[in-house]
Amino acid sequence: MSLFWCRSLRRIPLLALGASLVAAPVWGATFESTMADAAWQLESSQFECRLSQAIPLYGAAVFSRRAGEEQSFYLRQDSRQLAPGEARLEVQNPLWEEIPGSRELGRVDVVEGERPVQLDWRDSQQLMATLQSGKRLVFARQAWYGEDTQVRIMVEPVSFRPALERFHRCQAGLLPVNYDQIARTALYFQLGQDELPDEELEKLEQLALYARADDAVTRIFIDGHTDAMGLRADNLELSRQRAEWVAQYLMDRDVPESMITVRWHGERYPVASNHTPEGRHQNRRVTLRVDRADERLNASRQP
Fold it and tell me: According to CATH, what is the number of the domain 3-172?
């Protein structure tokens, strides 16, 4: 969700914040860490980098970047506090400064669910810059259980700079894609060809890289298809060649053969009309389905 900036609908330069700090108002409930506990924790892997600060009795403030995606920020709530609507985002002097005060930086949407506030890459960068400058972030909104109760969620800048450096190093080691991006992949062939063009090879290379990195991957199903041009028997054979070519490509990149299931269907299952060039192009494909152990477990638990 985007971050909406107040009054002039433009971003407020961080260097100007200190010039117009005003006295902070009194609120009904504040959720914050003590100075001793306001640490930033990094969880790092090839699949996601997550930098978070626990907020006692509420949840956490989290900067996250998944493989293949842009960085984001969200509040995670274990205890529901904020009413849906629009919250004020404030910048406040830290506790150790002599002059208290806060200034409104903008407005953010609050929604139902575990992540009531979610901000995109651009806005999360603004929050990082604020914390780097030594300022606190304050998300202020009425409580869901009463209009007369105001709630503040405080995010502290304590030790943020060294933690951010580790977060950036983690991002350099992320895979180029995540599971959601490769779980269902379609590769498109040129007319009569059983090898992939370069742009499709890049997709297959990324899938192979992910399959080698993720120990939870259990099986890759490869299905070959053709358009309806030519004889059915020839199309069935061509779909086999295409599917087996893709399988061999994965095995040449150290994806275990025992993990791969190859099937071919010729022209039997079109996804578009065979009466147009565009439709025939969509039908000349090999599809890959990547299964993970945790995905099967989740599916088995569904009613």
Answer: 2.60.40.2540
All structural domains of the chain with their residue ranges: 3-172, 179-301
Distance CA 160, CA 256 (A): 42
pLDDT of residue 5: 39
Contacts (Cβ under 8 Å, ≥6 apart) of 39: 33, 53, 54, 158, 159
Among left, alpha and beta (phi > 0; psi -120 to 50; other), residue 215 is: alpha
Which CATH architecture describes the domain 179-301?
Answer: 2-Layer Sandwich (3.30)
48-57 pLDDT, tens digit each: 999 999 999 9
* Gyration radius of the chain's alpha carbons: 26
Q: What stretch of H or E contains 287?
A: strand 285-292
How many Cα atoms occupy the beta-carbon half-sphere of 254 within 13 Å?
Answer: 6
H or E segment to which residue 228 belongs = none
pTM of the model as a whole: 0.81
**CA distances in angstroms from 199 to 48, 195, 212, listed in the order given:** 26, 12, 21
Amino acid at 45: S
Over the stretch 235-257, which tens digit does the pLDDT of each residue have?
999 999 999 999 999 999 999 99
